[in-house]
Amino acid sequence: MTILVTGAAGFIGMHVAAALLARGERVVGIDNFTPYYSVELKHARIAHLEQLGGEFLFRNIDFGNAETLNEALAREDIDRIVHLGAQPGVRYSLENPAAYIHSNIAGHLNILEFARHRGTSHLVYASSSSVYGMRSDTPFRVEDRADTPISLYAATKRADELMSETYAHLFRIPQTGLRFFTVYGPWGRPDMAVWKFTEAVLAGQPIDVYNHGDMLRDFTFIDDIVSGILLTLDNPPADDGKLKPGGFVSPHRLYNIGNNRPEQLMDLISTIEAACQRSATINLLPMQDGDVYQTFADIDDIANDLGFAPTTPISVGVPVFVGWYLARTEA
Fold this sequence. Notes:
about 325 residues, alpha/beta, Rossmann fold, 7-stranded parallel sheet, two-stranded parallel sheet, about 40% helix
């Protein structure tokens, strides 16, 4: 049997594919190298996977095109899917909304249809902490209402959850949606804070810090995210009519995956400064449209159901990232 990983050239997708290969799974990875950020970095991630050994097959596919998706994978015996491919980014959704509809709405539907007609035993898909909107009560719980998104990106992720529930109800497809909280680590995304701040500090350039530095984020190290994804993948929800996280009685559930400890943005910057052994020049700015003040994951559901327990604070994870970044830039 084979596991399909969408967004395999992405940050989380590459790490998940690597973890699956390490335990002897056959993995088919797909991606279409959208130029939202460095295409060179995405190709480097695929090259890294191909160098690991094991049964890894990569296909350059836009899953937003149903015909292309189905034709390219027609001969593959796909058992499970980890659907991580998407158009990411809150701020970019203000500039190019059509990209989000193509990848996150049409693309998610295409994956649901693929899972339906191929008899997939479990579809694990990426949602986002952004679905909670501008909440003041914390921590964010899966049972909280998520109907006030403040960005198109967040709206598409909530729509994905609702579409998945429809397919789980109608076609009994076991599914798990994972609401990720600010993921960082080696091979990360250049548009995310940890990478951007590290790059600026090492280059002696100023850092743009929004809301004058008064922001809280539940920074989650990539190893903890991968651990949660694999735990989830190996334990599909039962079609037993019982209530599940997210409020569903179909074989569908939602989990938060976060570090369960929000950090002040200025504390993150201090940790980066220490790891880089340099001081940052900080440019304080107002809050940007589409940003939220804080994120804080309540992980009780996934902890109680599957034993998920993050282990990596930023004091550990940030130096690991900085070490990887320095090694990559010096190579």
